[in-house]
Specification:
The protein is of the alpha+beta class. It has ten helices and seven strands. The protein has helices at 79-87, 102-115, 122-142, 151-162, 170-177, 181-192, 196-214, 219-225, 231-242, 246-253; strands at residues 4-12, 17-21, 27-40, 43-47, 52-55, 61-77, 97-98. Strands 1, 2, 3, 4, 5, 6 and 7 form a seven-stranded antiparallel beta sheet that branches. Helix 2 runs antiparallel to helix 3 (122-142) and helix 5 packs across helix 6. The radius of gyration is 20 Å and the shape is globular. The model has no long low-confidence stretch (mean pLDDT 87).
Length: 254
């Protein structure tokens, strides 16, 4: 038994969205082209080609695709394969991932090419390449000295989610965490994949997007409530995240 099923390529339109949803099965995803932002398990991450992701069964997640849309390789691992990963220390409930891997992207391109071939051996080859991707994720996970963020870092991230508009200077965050600012900065980036400033900026624009969809409040009021210094900073940050100005976004979602 290969351990792999439902192996296919999916494409997503530019600026498309997938609202919060969940799957009955676990899935692996390798980004082949384009990019998107995903929220899963209270985390927000940007994904680009070479990112290999695991989505646990029944994990609620949502996605927002960029200007180029996205092309993804998707496949589902069976229970035996998932048990093997757990047995060897891969914490699947944490939705592990490998990011920006040129080697995995090369494997994915080879796998996509195999799916285009109509002969008796293409499926066998594709299954083998998919298992190679899973092995890479397992090895990458176990190469980390500590696969889970430390408790102090998880609490710090929770504080950011509780009040994205609060002062988030590195010195203040370090004081809250009881750690040196450099240690806070490096640890946050290592475990969450982005600098703390980028993470907070994303939280702020997401809060602003909710207010734009659900209220008719003036843009400047929303900007100030969400922690932006003014309309110009708000507009720049919102455009970078959603590829749209706040006013255009509000018109599009109403």
């Amino acid at each position: 038994m290969s351990g792999i099923s439902e192996l296919h390529i999916s494409s997503y339109r530019p600026h498309g969205m997938m609202d919060a949803h969940q799957h009955d099965e676990a899935w692996f995803c390798l980004v082949l082209a384009g990019g998107y932002e995903e929220r899963i398990r209270s985390r927000a991450n940007d994904h680009l080609p070479g990112d290999l992701l695991y989505c646990p069964a029944h994990a609620v997640h949502e996605q927002r695709f960029g200007a180029a849309g996205a092309r993804k390789l998707l496949f589902s691992p069976d229970e035996n394969l998932q048990a093997l990963l757990r047995e060897h220390g891969v914490h699947l409930d944490e939705a592990p991932s490998v990011r920006r891997s040129a080697r995995l992207l090369h494997i994915g391109d080879r796998l996509a090419a195999e799916l285009e071939i109509d002969d008796p051996f293409a499926s066998l080859s594709a299954q083998g390449l998919a298992l190679e991707l899973v092995a890479a994720l397992g090895r990458g996970f176990n190469d980390r000295a500590d696969p889970s963020p430390p408790l102090w870092l998880r609490r710090l991230r929770d504080c950011l989610h509780d009040d994205p508009a609060a002062d988030v200077s590195l010195d203040r965050l370090a004081a809250v965490a009881g750690r040196h600012p450099v240690h806070v900065s490096r640890s946050f980036h290592a475990f969450y994949g982005v600098p703390v400033g980028d993470y907070v900026r994303r939280l702020r624009v997401e809060k602003a997007a909710v207010l734009l969809r659900s209220t008719r409040r003036p843009l400047i009021d929303i900007a100030i409530e969400c922690g932006f210094a003014g309309a110009a900073q708000f507009s720049r940050s919102f455009r970078a995240a959603f590829d749209s100005t706040p006013s255009s976004y509000r018109k599009a979602v109403r």
